[in-house]
């Protein structure tokens, strides 16, 4: 719940993450990363491939549990929760856009977008179905019964973003959300993410896209798992292109 100081923020406090490669050698994916992700701000995480950007997104989402440090949201220490509790927290609080989309290839666009709603209910609310159709229309994905496997990668990316927004979560975490898009659709998605931040969401994106980074109010640079820079302009970069209607 928001406290008297305002809405809750997502925080990373000294988080480190370690894995092993195929040979069993240890990999230090994150090294004592600390950062704040307040509501109403678009933060982008940049850095070379292998620098830890995806691991940071997954750790903020509670998918990866840090070896040291903690992830918090409001009064909840997310990283301290058991796996099932972290999964439940993530379903309530996070909209995730994975780099590889993770769509169900046999299902169509609408079914993929509405799938998260079925984790907590047996039947889909008509209002949620209408919202799913609105999101697909906003991202110009045809609402037809074509398996996701037959959509273009750009369409699949936009379906994944619509799915992340369906339940109106306070946190949006996106891994390379514009990577599979042409310039026009990349601009559309970047504008949507900036608009979401402007509407009070916590938005964190890992990206190689300078156009998306140029819209950010904060830029974090990772190198070899460590935070190299933290740049916070005095004012957030406004969305230059607003999509029809307003995100909620």
List the helices and strands and how they pair.
Elements lengths: L9 E11 L5 E12 L3 E6 L6 H8 L7 E6 L2 E2 L5 H11 E4 L11 H6 L11 H13 L14 H13 L5 E5 L7 H16 L3 E5 L3 H4 L4 E6 L2 E6 L17
Parallel strand pairs: 3-8, 3-9, 6-7, 7-8
Antiparallel strand pairs: 1-2, 1-4, 4-5, 9-10
Computed over alpha carbons, the radius of gyration is 18 Å
Uncertain spans, ≥5 residues at pLDDT below 50?
231-248
Overall geometry: globular
Average pLDDT, to the nearest integer?
A: 87
- Strand element count: 10
- Report the CATH topology name: Rossmann fold
Q: Strand percentage, roughly?
A: 25-35%
Structural category: alpha/beta
Specify the oligomeric state: single chain
Specify the biggest β-sheet.
6 strands, mixed
